[in-house]
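Problem 3 from the worked examples.
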Amino acid sequence: MDVALQVGELTESVSVTADAAVIETTTSSIGKVVDNKRIRELPLNTRNVYELIRLTPGVTGGIGNAHNAVGYSVNGVRGGLMDTLVDGVSASFPTVNGFHGISVFPSVDAVEEFKVQAQNYSAEFGRSLGSVLNLVYKSGTNEFHGSAYNFLRNSQLDANNYFNNARGIPLASFKRNQFGGVFSGPLKRDRTFFMTSFEALRQRSFRETLTSVPTALERGGDFSQTFAGPGRPITMYDPLNTRPEGNSVVRAVFPGNRIPAERFDPVARNIMRFYPTPNQAGLNGTNQQNFYNSGSAAVDTNNFDVRVDHNLSATQRLFGRYSYRRSFDGPPQLFPGELGVAEGRINNNDWGTSAVIDYTNTLTPTLVWTTRLGYSRNRFLFDNQGLGFVPSSLGLPAGIDSVVDRQMFPARRERIRD
């Protein structure tokens, strides 16, 4: 079969591209821009876009995923002296008890670029005593664009390490699912555009505890089988039975290392009910480390961003952005059932909100007017799992219920001193 091929028409096209200048010639500011290409293509293990600040010379440390904690330093300046701007508005919240962080944690796909300005920046960034991290969200365009993703890590797909296999220790359970998407486009062509993003994290990780709890004999006051080490029984002294001897005081010993029941403090007796009983043999015959349990720690995070840009005229532009982040970090319950109120577990809740409205007017080719209004807030809620427990129910004075700042199971510090 003969096939005839026709010569196509000759066409010409001209493509003009330009790279950003490597050397800044208009200001003396020293820093580094991390553009959208690097943000999209460089690997980020936990999708923490702030980790890319490490590309800047002089930067050590980073910004953690937990509550966006600022732990980096630029040229030796401490993180608490840095400022972070998101769409031109400060997103840094003041240091609280030594903790410093950022209220906005954008999705990687929603960021256009950011710049770390290490020093010699202009007066508009004068709020910082150290460096300035300046991040900008993407804007919508005349074309619809979108992306969706799901990053999965699961212990079912992981291999155990050699040493655990040799000791017969199974691989600990770990499940991490990070998913979301970004969608942008026009609301009205050439006039109004939008960009919205959502990202969520669901993580469950294995935790275990190996600790010491009172044995049945100890609960009855019998410490004759309580050892400080192999073959080294502890000695229980009677604090109410002492005698002077020379320049010191000698304490008497409880006979047989047994404390009489009538000497039990009623509050201590009630607290004892909130300890689990041993579920395994103690270590080396000492009854220590006689309780083992495991559980699952939870991390749940939701991030939401929306930005709308509107061209009022050829020289006037208006945009607004709203960001919301809610994070939950909950430890596992390692004491069984209702005994969990005595564990002292604390749920960490982090609610971050950020908003900005920006109006820009190009008055002349050399004069630009910008008015910007921003809002940023972080709320940290630390809820003890024992909240709501009435302290006086343990036998403490009833007046303590109205004096404490919150009703919860009392913190305990147990010690047996020989």
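Problem 4, a separate protein:
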Amino acid sequence: MDTFNISEGRILPGSGLAEFTVGYRAVVWRPFKGETVDAIVTSVNHVGFFADAGPLPLFVSAHLIPSDIKFDPNATPPQYTNNEDSVIEAGTHVRVKLIGTRAEVGGMYAIASIKEDYLGNNHEKWFRKVEIKAKSNGYFYVAEQSRENFDLIYREGGQNKPPLTKKFDVSKETGDVDDLKPKFEKNIKIFDQNSARFFSLVTDLVSDDDQAVFDEYDSAIEVWKHLRTKYGKTS
């Protein structure tokens, strides 16, 4: 919060207190029903888990967790898990959808769900696949806006032409071209299009750990060398 104007004080009759009119700027956030947010789990029990989405505390009931993810009371710390790639415990980053909100004096609370596609704690793996697929089609930067909407930066005809920012709906693959100029252009990682096509082809054939390696190398040949070194018989 930043104050930019404070009036002269006015003495309140009968009390001796002074009253000031203060102008201020503040960053505020109002969550809405149906909104998708990222949160950090704070506690887990058999009825669900609690998490914080920034200043918003929320609760995800066990009924709003996918049926294959079960509560494990014997784990340390207690957790929800499917005994594969999904583990939800204190400190886990999750993506949730707000089902409802409740405002009280001094605070706001929410009920949320992870019982939909691309929610929970494994959305990053899904996004990596979307990112690689987009890059293989000529987009060299993908910025996630929500679980369905992305900003795709596409440079047509080489490095000398200015980039276009396209709003992209993953489900429909349609959208209008905007003339937004990305502020993150200096920090982007540019995959060669052929490398991205290679990543797109092999992404479903390798483990999640190997998919994460895609983020560490700048070309397909470097990833290929890594896979050959790791598995030996790769040809």
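Solution to problem 4. The longest helix spans residues 123-136. Residues 136 and 194 are 7 Å apart (CA to CA).
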